[in-house]
Specification:
The protein is 39% helix and 12% strand. By secondary structure, it is of the alpha/beta class. It has three domains: 173 residues, NadA-like (Rossmann fold, 3-Layer(aba) Sandwich); 106 residues, NadA-like (Rossmann fold); 83 residues, NadA-like (Rossmann fold, 3-Layer(aba) Sandwich). The strands form three sheets. A four-stranded parallel beta sheet has the order 2-1-3-4, sandwiched between helices. Strand 9, helix 13 and strand 10 form a beta-alpha-beta unit. The longest helix has 21 residues. Bound molecules: iron/sulfur cluster. The site of iron/sulfur cluster (SF4) has 13 residues, from loops.
């Protein structure tokens, strides 16, 4: 049996506040984030001292997990699988014992995505799941702002994140004070805030959005101008799709800002006819070069209509690994751009999270109420209509 709530629960509600200057309404130069070189898949963490000795690959474990390996065998070698399988079996057992649900973002490692997540999807889909679940515990295999959003939407649940340091360069690019100063500078202009922000930023906003509904949210306000925070590239991509004037901030996703037009050209040269599918956190120039642009769920949906059997998903690496099983007919060319934040989440940490009920997300009631308004307004809008 595992212990009840430990005394050392930590409160991560302070969130991350960037040290960016309060520059009003300009699209700033690049440099809002520093890229950390792509992580190797974190064997060190996974083999660290947190794995109980009893977690061995045995016949019972093989039987309990045999349905998972065929889904991930293209990206996980057999010897590695035998390290994952006991953890998967134990997590799934503990999940039932704890009445917990695991929400897994599309960027999770394949063994998490296919092995333990009850629901997978983009941040919009997972928010909806978090709001609806009646499980007592939500373990969010994603990054901090996602877990915080789950807590805002379903405050009576215990929401856990396996690693408190799983942040986001966009989330760290702006502070509540920056937003307040922007509102002073542009009085009356509504503030649309990307989901990838701490609760305190959402609380300063009129409405939230994700990459799955940014254009619809912007147009739902019925104004000719909006302040759109904090992703500069998403703001510019939305501005290109709508007549609404967009005042942007200078945040960047450290994963998507790396992709370049030259890189896309090189892939097209090497793989003639390849279909290029990009995420709207990429630069407008890269999106312009793509055959399709959409959120992670939009990209996955588009695969059903792929016009080539070779596809490049211009986004985080694990996406291609995770969708390969559903699309054996497609060959995925994988430009490797790992999110170091997403990759902080491992099976070992998820097991520890469930065993020790850590790390619990809390949001101050006053912040939560205001952030909830912005999120609910977004959820009423739903998703953009995406042309497949
Ligand atoms: S992929 Fe980019 S936007 Fe997503 S969590 Fe990582 S840094 Fe943030």
């Amino acid at each position: 049996m595992y212990p009840a709530l430990p005394a050392d629960r930590r409160d991560p509600s302070a969130g991350s506040i960037g040290n960016f200057p309060a520059v009003f309404g300009f699209i700033l130069d690049a440099g809002s984030a520093t890229f950390t070189p792509a992580l190797k898949r974190g064997r060190k963490n996974r083999l660290g001292g947190t794995v109980p000795q009893t977690l061995q690959y045995r016949d019972s474990v093989a039987w309990l997990t045999e349905h998972v390996y065929p889904k991930i065998r293209d990206s996980v070698p057999r010897f590695e699988w035998e390290l994952h399988a006991p953890l998967i079996a134990e997590i799934n057992h503990l999940k039932r014992e704890r009445n917990a649900v695991i929400l897994g973002h599309n960027y999770m490692l394949p063994e998490i995505f296919h092995g333990i997540a009850d629901f997978t999807g983009d941040s919009l889909a997972l928010s909806e799941r978090a709001r609806e679940t009646d499980a007592e515990i939500i373990v969010f295999c994603g990054v901090h702002f996602m877990a915080e959003t789950a807590k805002i939407l379903n405050p009576s649940r215990t929401v856990l994140i396996p690693d408190l340091d799983a942040g986001c360069s966009l989330s760290e690019s702006i502070s509540p004070e920056d937003v307040r100063l922007l509102k002073q500078r542009y009085p009356g202009i509504p503030v649309v805030t990307y989901m990838n922000t701490p609760a305190a930023i959402k609380a300063e906003s009129d409405v939230c959005c994700t990459s799955a509904n940014a254009r619809s949210v912007v147009e739902s306000l019925g104004t000719d101008t909006v302040i759109f925070l904090p992703d500069e590239y998403l703001a510019r991509n939305v501005a290109a799709e709508t007549d609404v004037k967009v005042i942007a901030w200078s945040g960047r996703c450290i994963v998507h800002e790396r992709f370049t037009v030259d890189e896309i050209h090189a892939y097209r040269e090497q793989y003639p006819g390849i279909e290029v599918i990009a995420h709207p956190e990429c630069s407008p120039e890269v999106c312009e070069e793509a055959d399709f642009v959409g959120s992670t769920s939009g990209m996955i949906g588009h695969l059903d209509h792929a016009r080539s059997n070779q596809v490049i998903m211009v986004t985080e690496c694990s996406m291609s690994d995770n969708v390969q099983e559903a699309h054996p007919e497609l060959q995925f060319v994988k430009p490797c751009s790992l999110c170091p934040h997403m990759k902080k989440i491992s099976l070992e940490k998820t097991l520890d999270s469930l065993r020790e009920l850590r790390y619990e997300i809390e949001v101050a009631p006053e912040i939560r109420q205001r952030a909830l308004r912005a999120l609910e307004r977004m959820l009423e809008v739903g998703r953009d209509r995406v042309a497949a």
